[in-house]
Amino acid sequence: MDPTDKPKGLSPHYSLYQREVFKNGGTTGQLPSFSVHPDELSESTKKKLNDRGYFYANSNAGLGWTDRANREAFYRWRIIPRMLVDTTTRDLTTTIFGHRIPAPILFAPIGINKLYAPAGELIPATIAGELGLPYCLSTAASQSIEDVAAANDTAAQNKNESNSVYSYCGAPKSNNSSSPRFFQLYMGHDDEITLSLMKRAWKSGFDVLMLTVDTWQLGWRPTDINIANYAFYYPSSVGNELGKSDPVFMRKHGEELENDSGKWIDSSVWHGKAHTWEKIPWLIKEASDICSPCGRPFVLKGIQSAADARRALEIGCEGIVVTNHAGRQVDGAVGSLEVLPEIVQAVGDRMTIIFDSGIRTGSDIFKAIALGAHVVEVGRLWVWGMAHEGEAGCRHVMKSLLADLDITMTVAGYASMEKDVRGNKDALRFNPYGVPPGKDDHAKL
């Protein structure tokens, strides 16, 4: 954490963000306005949002057992620190779909961001651009594809040079071309609208198409049921902006929106009968044709079994997201980290493996990468930060997470994410006993 000792490594010295916070507090009395401790951050978010906003991002399926299973799975894997290792210079960089990124973190697709701040998806797209990290836009977004792309491009091209994370570092700055941009697709049953969305995403510089396959029907979410929490059906609410900006959808259904605000989500995004594996080759081909001649990586989001991972590989998918939709779809399902090792064993490095569901800390990221994931998706954390202070809150949470990961690597004795951590199960030990302490238990410790 010595700012005068700045060896030129491949990664920014993210750990210096902790020093910056300490120094601001000690010299000027300036303290963070909210806690980035995940449990405390989740609780304080309740005070910042109304029930509809809070539960849209935080409701779980059924009793919430799958959400808890995600955290229990992390608890059972323990990091084995190594001593007397020179970690003065860390390398957190990794490669995803041919792009070199500064850390193995992807902004997960979350819809209706205007529930958390007026600028909506423009905020995480901006912070992702600043940090050089990949951003993924949801089909259920509350901003247009084009506006989000522009915000991400502008931030990537005009990084604030006074940002301490970068000014302390001798590493080269990322440029826009070094970080891929993902478009997450909810595929309805109108192929013309699906193709329109894909064409718009490609023209706006979204490099990767990510199809979500675990949400043809919303899971049973009692905390949303209690308050009829489905923003798309409220005329004065948000959530239909991406549809309203689509020329094909508006040509077909624009007039109906006046009397049916849920037309976009019902007819074009999800609901109705599920698609099957037989549909996927068509979508892969169409995506490839749209992006001809260079093509575009195709990713399935929602994989929870080795069998499905192998099937995805066989039909031509270049990547998968190992996720249970953060515990929001199937109550009582396996934790995502539980199944990650067997999925990695099934497909190995023949496809890109993105891990999602339950990431809260730098240690969580370390564990997922050690178990074989190439990158992780982070979702609720940046939503919570954005709910507190908009752009500043989102930035604070993500810089804190990067510092946490960097410091974990430093003090645990692992200098390189790719050489020392990824796929290195010797860096971990599995403990099948116990569960994470609950909030009441923390007070007793």
From TrEMBL:
Pfam families for this protein: FMN_dh
Positions of glyoxylate binding: 56, 186, 221, 325, 328
Residues at which FMN binds: 109-111, 138, 184, 212, 301, 356-360, 379-380
The protein's required cofactors: FMN
Active site: 325 (proton acceptor)
Gene3D superfamilies to which the protein is assigned, alphabetical: Aldolase class I
GO MF annotation: an example: oxidoreductase activity
Every FMN hydroxy acid dehydrogenase domain range: 30-430
Record keywords: Flavoprotein, FMN, Oxidoreductase
InterPro entries (alphabetical): Aldolase_TIM, Alpha-hydoxy_acid_DH_FMN, FMN-dep_DH, FMN_HAD
Family (UniProt): Belongs to the FMN-dependent alpha-hydroxy acid dehydrogenase family.
Protein's name in the database: FMN-dependent alpha-hydroxy acid dehydrogenase
Taxonomic source organism: Mycena venus
